[in-house]
Amino acid sequence: MKDEADDTTSAPPAALHRVDGPADDPTGELVAIVPAGGAGTRLWPLSRRSRPKFLLDLVGSGRTLLQATVDRLLPLTGDGGVYVVTGVAHAEAVAGQLPELPVANLLAEPSPRDSMAAIALAAAVVEARLGPRVVASFAADHVVPDADRFRDCVRTAVLAARAGYVTTVGIEATGPSTAFGYIERGEELAAVPGAFGVRRFVEKPDAETAAGYLATGRYSWNAGMFVVRTDVLLGHLARLHPELAAGVREIAAAWDTAGRDDVLGRVWPTLERIAIDHAIAEPVAAQGGVAVVPGTFGWDDVGDVDALAGLLSAAGQDDAAAPVVLASSEPGASSGEPGDGAGAPIVVIDSPGALVAPGPDAPAIAVVGLPGVAVVRTGDAILVLSRDAAQDVKGVVDRLRELGRDDLV
Amino acid sequence: MKDEADDTTSAPPAALHRVDGPADDPTGELVAIVPAGGAGTRLWPLSRRSRPKFLLDLVGSGRTLLQATVDRLLPLTGDGGVYVVTGVAHAEAVAGQLPELPVANLLAEPSPRDSMAAIALAAAVVEARLGPRVVASFAADHVVPDADRFRDCVRTAVLAARAGYVTTVGIEATGPSTAFGYIERGEELAAVPGAFGVRRFVEKPDAETAAGYLATGRYSWNAGMFVVRTDVLLGHLARLHPELAAGVREIAAAWDTAGRDDVLGRVWPTLERIAIDHAIAEPVAAQGGVAVVPGTFGWDDVGDVDALAGLLSAAGQDDAAAPVVLASSEPGASSGEPGDGAGAPIVVIDSPGALVAPGPDAPAIAVVGLPGVAVVRTGDAILVLSRDAAQDVKGVVDRLRELGRDDLV
Predict the structure, then answer these.
(1) Fewer CB atoms inside 10 Å of the end CB: C or N, chain B?
(2) Mean per-residue pLDDT for A21-50?
(3) Which among A196, A176, A193, A174 has a CA at the least distance from the CA of A184?
(4) Exposure on the CB side of residue A221, measured as CA atoms within 13 A
């Protein structure tokens, strides 16, 4: 075992198990994996444990983030090519939002075991059903305005994945953000133009470090997007976290049998909790086995209300001083148009950069003399905050927990 | 007529019709008049046309401003000595809030004709019923924390009123406010220690002028408080606005007869619309007929949300940085205590000087990173504003009217 593991450290295990698609479409047999987890605490009160961010239509597009993610991926995979992994608590809501998803493609985790277990399980189930495939994993709660350019990047990433790389799509940094981890790229791959070797992944930096990264021109943001062959992924996992790999293989083997629940109940709680970045991406990058395809397609992880306001403002409005109104954050919720005289009016005075999310059955909402304020209303809560303090919303959730008001978080 | 009018310009018509009370109580036969009008637009959404400021418990004392005003006056007048003048639209609500008020003491105006008509009508009805009396008029929607000192001032004012002066109670200015008119006093009256002649009334000044007023030590704020004999008041009115005086006399003569509604319907709409300040106080002051009793009793007209927050903050809280929570603005409304874990929680982070008025059946309310913000909620509206911009709330009401949403104003 040790010798085999050492063998893989020097170079990517390219073409050991070649996965071919149609010659004219490098994603011909691509399977997408969408881990749908995380509450989005900093988007309280829109997001809750019981109503996480991915189930919300945060940008008022008429599709939730999860639905938009699947919409964006289906042209790459074809029908039936998207798998969603989510917690049992949200399985019904996910199925309800994705009627086009085959029931067998919805994998419900009994409990959260972090991203490595979720993605590895899906990869193992896919491989057990279909044989080795290139899989591509994308979070369910990110926003990608330019889906065409996104898909072009993924197609390039699939070529690198076929060649044996754990391939990530790196987001071209538009500023020295301290909210994201960074990916340092090396040389362009000779065999896959547009894909680069990855030197290392780095955690969220301070502002000065981030500015230094940008100045080199070699860094992109890590959005947690991974494109990789199932056999390559599970091979690395077997080498680096053998018990975790064995566990997901055992569960996957039983998945489509009557023994699924038994095996899942016995093995799943024992699986190591670790993120795919730490389990695979970082160590394999150090060994030269990771590639990155840099891309610019307006990606945003909508991490807080300030990001949401910026996204909505950039998307729709000519007048930068005009308030941003989030029409609805829940499918089917009703709210008034600003100034239409019929629904609940929204009046904003002397408050450039204001965001108003009126919520369902909204009352009249007026904002006066507060530049950069966000007013976010749901049926049971009102949050009023400075967009500059958007990260501090976590303190509200903490305080509500202290007060014993878990019903509100 | 002209000669008579000229005669009165040289000196106050003192003691022409002396009104005596018990020797040991200068307010023995005082009658109080409480004009209850005005919507309080700048306190939207708490105050509305249909729910004006005086009907609200703005300070969370358990009594509305109207009730607190009557409570404050009854020790001066004795039972049955308070009259309230209000619009027909609010007569039922006023009667409901003041079960101790004799039905005959509630005077309903068919339409608003400004303060001179309202006060003169009440004075004329009082005189028709009781003969000449000293009457004292106080707005229904002001806050007076120190009622004992207030009543001491009024007792002194009654002495000056008996002597024939139109007497006002001037509020000792605590700062160069530009929100109030000012009263300039002259010499102390020899016969009434504590009362001074009034040189003039001045309209709301700019800040520089206000600071100059304060520096002289001769100016107090005009709170629209007037103490005067009915015969003196109606005499001045007959001289200065004879048609208005004749009109209210005619209505008052018919008030307690079957002909009231006919006369009211015919005469009231013809009465001149003018404020008592312009009709009586200013011209009579120019003629030497007005006195002022300066007083310090924490008066506030609660003109806007900033004033309300300041008042609540001064009244109850040791920690200046702690948020001010307005428990309830309507009798019977329920709302949560901050942090009690049972009602709706209020969480305020990094927002010193914040005011939160959660309103009835409140949701959770969180405020983050907004010093000096006010969040005012009612059943059908939410206002979020900088306390510095509290005067601009009028713009919201204007905009709602433009939108045809008179139901919200």
Answers:
(1) N
(2) 80
(3) A196
(4) 19
Chain B CB within 8 Å of residue A372 CB: no
Positive or negative, the CA dihedral A399, A402, A408, A409 is: positive
Among B39, B59, B45, B55, residue whose Cα is nearest residue B379:
B45
pLDDT classification of A298: cutoffs 50, 70, 90: confident
- Nearest by Cα to B125 from B283, B234, B8, B236: B234
Q: What residues have CB less than 8 Å from B159, skipping those under 6 apart?
A: B26, B192, B195
Nearest CA in chain B to A406: B341
**A367: closest CA of chain B, how far (Å):** 5
Distance CA B62, CA A363 (A): 26
* CA of residue A233 relative to chain centroid, distance: 18
Query: What integer is the mean pLDDT of A188-192?
Result: 96
Q: Which residues contact A393 (CB under 8 A, 6 or more apart)?
A: A41, A42, A43, A44, A304, A305, A383, A385, B366, B368
Of B341, B367, B393, the CB nearest to A403: B341
pLDDT at B329 over 60: no
**Do B201 and B183 form a contact (C-beta atoms < 8 A)?**
yes
* pLDDT attached to residue B325: 84
Question: What domains appear along chain B, each with residue ranges and CATH number?
Answer: 2-295 (3.90.550.10), 317-408 (no CATH)
Other residues' Cβ atoms within 10 Å of the Cβ of residue A263 = 17
User: Quick one: closest CA in B to A358, which residue?
Assistant: B382
Q: Which helix (H) or strand (E) holds B284?
A: helix B282-286
Identify the helix (H) or strand (E) that includes residue B189: none
Contacts of A304 in chain B (CB under 8 A): none
- Pairing mode of beta strands B82-87, B31-36: parallel
Backbone phi, then psi, for B4, in 5-degree steps?
Answer: -60, -45
Q: Is A342 on the interface with B (CB under 8 A)?
A: no
Helices (H), ranges, A10-87:
65-77
Look at B384 and A399 and tell me if their CB atoms are within 8 Å. Answer: no
Element (H, E) at A175: none
- Amino acid identity of residue B12, one-letter, is P
Q: Does B364 touch chain A (CB under 8 A)?
A: yes
Which stretches of A170-273 are DSSP H helices? 207-216, 230-240, 242-255, 260-267
Phi, psi of B128 (to 5 degrees): -65, -35
Angle formed at CA B362 by CA B357 and CA B364, multiple of 5 degrees: 95
- Which tokens go with A356? 């108003």
**pLDDT tens profile B194-224:** 999 999 999 999 999 999 999 999 999 999 9
Of A223, A219, A235, the closest CA to residue A289 belongs to: A235
Does the CB of A388 have a partner CB in chain B at under 8 Å? Answer: yes
Distance, in Å, from the CA atom of B375 to the CA atom of B392, rounded to the nearest integer, reads 15
CA distance A334 to A60: 11
CA distance B147 to A306: 49
How many residue contacts between A and B have a Cβ separation below 8 Å? 146
> Is the whole-model pTM more than 0.90?
no
Are residues A240 and A283 in contact, defined by beta-carbon separation less than 8 angstroms? yes
Number of helical H runs and strand E runs in chain A: 13, 15
Is any Cβ of chain A less than 8 angstroms from the Cβ of B371?
no
Quick check: A400 contacting B, CB < 8 Å? yes
Q: Which of B44, B375, B405 sits opposite A341 (nearest CB)?
A: B405
User: If you search the block for the tokens 């003169």, which residue do you land on?
Assistant: B120
The DSSP call for residue B277 is I
What percent of chain A is helix, strand and coil (3-state, nearest 5)?
40, 20, 40
The region, left, alpha or beta by phi > 0 then psi within -120 to 50, assigned to residue B38 is left
